[in-house]
């Protein structure tokens, strides 16, 4: 699929939903300040996937470089976010590589194989859990974000692991961060049904199954994880941004619920998948050359 190309220093006006192909940081610099109400995203995890794309995030030579890279992107994103806006950030963890420099395939998940893998971070040991979600959350807090909630995404259908010396990992973190002390929060939309059948304020453990999507090579961000974030932190007609758009799940949720979306994605293959999934017209997709 051929996409419209634009070049810096053009500024991108937000009047309708868009998918922008290119580097997240460069494209964010082209977006207007205070223009999106909500950000929902799941960046690539460090040392777990090789997308074979120049400039990809997740294969930095050190964990600190990965954290710094994301902090820089989210700092620019803070400018684009409205003052009363919210960032919902899903990030997974991982174990040290033991300096093997590769990761073997798995019968249940052959795509996990990697020929290149970063070394064990300084200060950690072989088999250590790296604590990446909290390292990133604290780095963002230090950079000025308000860390308002840590949500446990519990996966009842979590994929089995071939381990016999620790529990199988069946959760990830979803952090709620805000730009300011006061922000838009739809309390009524946040309510869930409690054990007694009454509606109550949403708790911090969300039981949500993973979802597969046939066109994507890897597990996708589930619509049922994005939905409460959209309802709680935006209103109909608002813009919701995902700077790591992937196969377009956040866009799917926004399109079904009267929100505009802006998706940024580096991988052309995933841009095409998202475009087909969303039924986008050619003028709603831009390849941003820098």
Tally of discrete structural domains: 1
User: What CATH architecture would you give?
Assistant: 3-Layer(aba) Sandwich
CATH fold group:
Rossmann fold
Assign an overall shape: globular
Calculate the mean pLDDT score and round it: 87
Helix content: 10-25%
- Taking all Cα atoms into account, the compactness measure Rg is 19 Å
User: End-to-end span in angstroms?
Assistant: 20 Å
CATH class: Alpha Beta
Alpha plus pi helix count: 7
Task: Report the uncertain regions.
Answer: none
Largest sheet: 10 strands, mixed
| Spatial sequence of strands, sheet with the most strands | 1-12-2-11-10-3-4-6-5-9
Strand content: 15-25%
- What name goes with the CATH superfamily? Vaccinia Virus protein VP39
N-to-C SSE series?
Answer: EEHEHEHEEHEEEHEHEHE
How many E strands?
12
The helix/strand class is alpha/beta
Written description of the protein model:
- The protein has 290 residues and is of the alpha/beta class.
- It has a single domain, classed as Vaccinia Virus protein VP39 (Rossmann fold, 3-Layer(aba) Sandwich).
- It has seven helices and twelve strands.
- Strands 1-12-2-11-10-3-4-6-5-9 form a ten-stranded mixed β-sheet. A two-stranded antiparallel ribbon has the order 7-8.
- Helix 2 (63-80) packs across helix 3 (132-142) and helix 5 (223-233) packs across helix 6.
- The protein is globular and about 50 Å long.
- The relative contact order is 0.23.
């Amino acid at each position: 699929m051929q996409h419209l190309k634009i070049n810096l220093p053009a500024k991108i006006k937000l009047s309708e939903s868009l998918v922008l192909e290119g580097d997240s940081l460069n494209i964010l610099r082209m977006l207007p300040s205070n223009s999106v109400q909500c950000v929902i995203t799941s960046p690539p995890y460090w040392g777990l996937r090789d997308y074979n794309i120049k400039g990809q995030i997740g294969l930095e030579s050190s964990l600190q470089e990965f954290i710094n890279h994301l902090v820089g992107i989210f700092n620019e994103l803070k400018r684009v976010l409205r003052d009363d806006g919210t960032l919902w950030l899903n990030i997974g963890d991982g174990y040290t590589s033991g300096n093997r420099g590769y990761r073997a395939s798995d019968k249940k998940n052959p795509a996990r194989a990697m020929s290149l893998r970063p070394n064990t971070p300084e200060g950690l040991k072989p088999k250590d859990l790296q604590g990446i979600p909290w390292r990133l959350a604290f780095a963002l807090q230090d950079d000025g974000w308000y860390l308002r909630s840590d949500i446990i995404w519990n996966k009842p259908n979590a994929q089995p692991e071939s381990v016999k010396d620790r529990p199988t990992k069946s959760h990830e973190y979803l952090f709620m961060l805000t730009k300011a002390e006061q922000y838009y929060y739809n309390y009524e939309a946040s309510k869930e049904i409690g054990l007694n059948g009454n509606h109550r304020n949403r708790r911090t453990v969300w039981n949500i199954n993973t979802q597969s999507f046939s066109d994507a090579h890897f597990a996708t961000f589930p619509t049922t994880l994005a939905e409460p974030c959209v309802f709680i932190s935006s209103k109909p007609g608002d813009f919701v941004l995902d700077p790591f758009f992937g196969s377009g799940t956040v866009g799917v949720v926004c399109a079904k619920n009267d929100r505009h979306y802006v998706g940024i994605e580096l991988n052309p293959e995933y841009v095409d998948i998202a475009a087909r999934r969303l039924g986008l017209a050619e003028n709603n997709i831009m390849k941003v050359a820098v």
